[in-house]
Amino acid sequence: MCLYGDYVMDRPRSDTLSHVLQDNIALAVGRQGQAVGQQTWNLAIASRFVADTNLFYRGGIQYFPIYLYPTKQKELTDPDQYSLSNKGRRPNLSKAFVSELGAKLRIPFQTEGSAFANGDTPDWFGPEDVFYYTYAVFHSPTYRERYAEFLKIDFPRLPLTSDLSLFAALVNLGAELVSLHLMKSPRLSDFMTTFNIEGDNEVARGYPKYNEVKGRVEINKTQYFGGVSPAIWEFHIGGYRVAEKWLKDRRGRKLVYDDLTHYQKIIVALSETRRIMSDIDETIPGFPIE
Question: What is the pLDDT of residue 37?
Fold first, then answer.
């Protein structure tokens, strides 16, 4: 099917997006960081839903689900692809890449799950371990700074390690980040903000506004979320200031209880993300990774 009009021309991308309609996680990355126009590359986020091509500020997104489900017969017979697991899917990883990583780690690959995310150092690794490791590396502030010029013009490149302990540590940090960004982490219930001024809860025109002196995000003339630090307010993903963008998209809307709690969870997620990014840098002894 093709959608056509004098304002849009598009087609469905079922070969890619159908995989995310099932049990899956996908990595959204940007190919050209310079398109966003920010000094620090921040074009990486995990999702379990179909994503809008405008997820990032400019330049579109590339979407990589960790698992692929059969959509065409050739997926079941292609010798260069993995066989389907008992869950009816296969990892979205090339055999050459997996072979290289397995040779470095000196452990075999299994096509389902994560062996490391529970804190152990087992004798195999799975596709989710690769996902979590990748996510951690791409959130290293030192990685983003060291390769800043390259990240302006192309896809991020993933350095591989032969240190099994380092791999395990980064998998666990990456898994923690993914849990936060999918809004599944139990840490999200530890609110660090307040919202206790009576009112209609409407995000008014011209808002949100950030009051740096008082550390609060104002949604109208009288109501605000208190306890938001400047560092959290300025935290960007995909070229957007997250704490601003979520509320800005809801201008003219009255926030209900679920909206208020969700926003406070976002603030926790941003705070925890900053902490984990620092932990990732402390864990990686240096670049290039060995």
Answer: 67
Amino acid letter for position 170? L
Q: Return the DSSP state at 280.
A: H
pLDDT tens-digit readout, 195-211: 999 999 999 999 999 99
Asked if 135 and 46 touch (Cβ cutoff 8 Å), the reply is: yes
Question: What pairs with residue 3 in β-bridges?
Answer: 10
pLDDT of residue 154: 86
- Could you give the CA distance from residue 176 to residue 166 in angstroms, rounded to a whole number? 15
Spatial separation of the C-alpha atoms in residues 243 and 120, rounded to whole Å: 35
d(Cα 219, Cα 201) in Å, to the nearest integer?
8
Mean pLDDT for 97-102 is 96
What is the end-to-end Cα distance of the chain in Å, rounded?
47
Mean pLDDT of the chain: 90
Q: Output DSSP code: residue 46.
A: E
User: In whole angstroms, what separates CA 222 from the centre of its chain?
Assistant: 34
Phi, psi of 45 (to 5 degrees): -155, 145
Angstrom distance (rounded) from CA 7 to CA 13: 19
Distance CA 120, CA 171 (A): 10
* 3 state SS of 104: helix
